[in-house]
Amino acid sequence: MGSSTPAARLIAGTAGLAMAAAVLVATAPAAVAAPQHGLGHSVSPAQQYEGNPDPSDWLGSYVVGGQHVWCVSYAYLAPDTDEQYQPGEALKTKWGTELAPTVAADISYLLLRYTKTTSADEAAALGHLLHSWTAAPQKPDQLLPTNTFRTIAYDEAGHFAKLPASAKAAVDKLKADATANHGPWTVKITKPTKPQIIDTPDAWTVQVNNAAGKGVANVPVALTLTDATAEGRTTLTAKTPVDGGPATINVTPTGVNPKLAVSLSSPADRPVVRAAVQVDTQRVVSTGGEKALTGAEATTAVTAPGSVAVAKVDEKTGAGIAGVSLRITAADKVAPAVGQDGKPLVGADGKPTVVVTGADGTVKVPELKTPQDICVIEVAAPAGYEQSFDPTAPPSVCGTVKPGDTLTLKLVNKPNVPTVPKTIPAGDDPGVATAAMDSGGPSTGLLVGLGALVLLAAGGSAAFVRRRTPRAVVGRGMRRDWER
Asked: CB–CB of 329/352 below 8 Å?
């Protein structure tokens, strides 16, 4: 807010109008530009002070060099559209005193959050609050109309009363927002607690907190990823949600060292103002309320885990063999295999872990680090398969576990050969023939034949006994003629 009439400003405080007019004629350059209102509201009547020619006061932005700016030297000249300004310096009050730390923090926050507003009410509210904080009276007589533009203070209550209701509501909103969310801000990046899986997304969060340690809503955060992507990109922008909670980013590692770096604009410790080159012209603020805030976190990533599925089967029937103990080792058949967590898979005895096949003759070992060469070694022969088991060279099978895959292996056991005698006794009669056995055991036909022979021999013996019986019962001392 400021007078838009340079001549009236120069008249203020002079001894006479005639002398002022002479000075103006002699020194005033040709006007090439004029003040241009941006967003805001005019309020009437204007606050009175000596030499003020304006019927109303402007609360809002001015357009300078195509940019919206807000004035902070109440009652000084309003800037022209091509006004030239010097580099920024720390903002002070109109009286040249330091701003209170909380006021400086509130102004920085509002400049960061509201200088790009498209709302006339918010623009007017920002202009009103800036003058209220930077041009508040240091003593009561600074509000008297007898003051000049240099000494007049801003009448906060008087201007607020003239604002439309919507702008008054915006004043309350901006003031409460600044109180709740002013800086200094901090940023916190939370990464997954466990190593990530390459090519598999996992959630990271970015939380922006205010000076009270509470989350700030709607904060744009620039993200840069290394050894990773988010939404298929390595650079993107996220925004904290409306409830002030953390923004969630699904990070997909593409290498072993994924890293997330963030950058955002946060409220400056002290706002920065630009002073006009032309004397008695208002100082202005636009951005000037922000500072860069950065952070980064990194983690490690590993390939997707694999697993091995082992089937223990009978060589002849292909049926699964239950209860077989199998040792899981590295490719050298001595060292243990390695789990997805990078730890060796060992049992309570410190040796490579042993698994046991289930009822169907299979067992699965999950969560193995990949890629990895492993071997499965039989610990002891199951019952019925002892003959072919060599404890110095037990059955084993090896293979490579690949990321995200299941390695299928099969161990075959040869069943025992039944042990059968080389000859089969045929009672006490030495006349019964013997049967030779081959290494694979007697054939079914041979066994049937042997059984028939045994039965035949037994039947012949019985007949012989029956034929001899009559001889045994012939009268004593008597012999039949045919026997003589």
From this structure: yes
At 334, list the tokens: 């001595």
| Cβ atoms of residues 410 and 308 within 8 Å | no
pLDDT digits (tens, 9 = 90+) for 179-201: 999 999 999 999 999 999 999 99
Which residues contact residue 211 at a Cβ distance below 8 angstroms, ignoring those fewer than 6 apart? 105, 182, 183, 184, 185
**Model pLDDT for residues 319-346, shown as the tens digit of each residue:** 999 999 999 999 999 999 999 989 999 9
Give strand pairing partners of 209.
186, 215
Q: Measure the CA dihedral 155/158/160/161, to 10°.
A: 180
What is the rounded distance in angstroms from the CA atom of residue 186 to the CA atom of residue 197?
29
Question: What is the C-alpha to C-alpha distance for residues 100 and 104, in angstroms, rounded to an integer?
Answer: 6
Residues of 283-317 as b/e, b for ≥16 C-beta within 10 angstroms? bbbbbbbbbebebeeebebbbebbbbebbbbbeee
Q: Which secondary-structure segment (H or E) carries 225?
A: strand 220-226
Strands in 121-175 per DSSP E: none
Average pLDDT, whole number, for the chain?
A: 85
Would you say residue 372 has pLDDT above 80? yes
Write the DSSP symbol of residue 215.
B
Domains of the chain are 6-181 (no CATH), 186-268 (2.60.40), 306-413 (2.60.40.10), 421-484 (no CATH)
Closest residue by Cα to residue 303 from 405, 226, 407: 405
Enter the pTM of the model. 0.70
Residue pLDDT, tens place only, 414-461: 999 987 666 555 555 544 443 343 444 443 333 333 343 333 333 443
**Sheet strands (E) in 277-416:** 284-285, 290-298, 301-302, 306-314, 325-330, 354-356, 362-368, 372-378, 396-401, 406-413
Signed CA dihedral, 443, 448, 449, 450: sign only: positive
